[in-house]
Amino acid sequence: MPKHYFITGATGFVGGHIAEACVGRGFGVCTIARSGSDTSLLEKLGATIHRGDLGDAALVQRALDGVNVVVHCAAKVGDWGPVEEYRAVNVDALRGILEACKGRTLDRFVQMSSLGVYAARHHHGTDESEPLPAQHMDGYTQTKVEAERLALEYLRRDGVPVVVLRPGFAYGPRDRTVMNRLIGLLRARQVRYLGNGEAAMNTIYVDNLVDAVFLAVQKPQAVGQIFNLTDGEHVSKRRFIEAIADGMGIEKPTGSVPLWLARILAWAMERRARRQGAKEAPRLTQARIKFLGLNLDFSIEKAKRELGYQPRFSFDEGMSQTMAWQRQMA
Questions:
Q1: For a disulfide at 30, which of 8, 48, 155, 228, Cβ 3.0-4.6 Å?
Q2: 3-class SS at 29?
Q3: Domain containing 137: what range?
Q4: What percent of the chain has pLDDT over 70?
Q5: pTM over cut 0.70
Q6: Do 186 and 248 meet the contact criterion of CB atoms below 8 Å apart?
Q7: Alpha-carbon gap, residue 274 to 286, rounded angstroms
Q8: Does any domain span residue 161?
Q9: In angstroms, rounded to a whole number, what is the distance separating the alpha carbons of residues 88 and 69?
């Protein structure tokens, strides 16, 4: 097993958990963090922190010295804004890191992608053989597809030992973005189900995702492969939302909007927002319909078969830990 990891996005939710798990296993960790980033956890872990930007080629070269494994988690996320802004982070910065990896002896380059790369439609057991659309609905998903293709190109052309992981919606302690936003909307009684609320989510507890990362590093057959990752159980939108409401002692939402109507409203809201040059996304977007309205059931059989991936934590166990942390922070 490799002994020194370079983790991008280590000041973020998923990257921070991977860094913590690495240190717990006795591995060295280094990262690049922008000025002003909260590095308190990484400092506590004893990680090596290079101050600067991932776009600094010389800094990336220095950070990679002595590294066996790269786990690339850094990304610009969201469902609004010019695709060029997403591409600068999600594709161009990745290209710089891959260039710096050429000629180095690496055991693995783990490219953290997303189940969002699949088409915005209902999914029922979709696996990795599904072709990806050439054009996506927003800058994030569009550039995550481009990033996957770029990483695999460096495998084919330059021998960088890339493996692509496609996790679903990651949740767990220390998520200060999506979960906080959902809790705020629930408290404001602004959450409505799109459809009957029984469509599947694509959840993955962060510790299950961390386990998958180590499996992708350990298994030689993972190189060049793409793996879907979830908790491996059916979690409906209603079950997901109600688990948050119950965990925080908030009234459960009861209202719903037909999916067909939500699509029309999202189209109108997005059109108006773009016409006005809005910097923030409207209340309803096609990406949010995908998250809260579409059936997002993806097969993880390949990860089970080829990586030996078996989710250690059920959704109920993971959500219990998540809500305990949220209550502590409230």
A1: 48
A2: strand
A3: 4-175+202-232
A4: 99
A5: yes
A6: yes
A7: 14
A8: yes
A9: 23
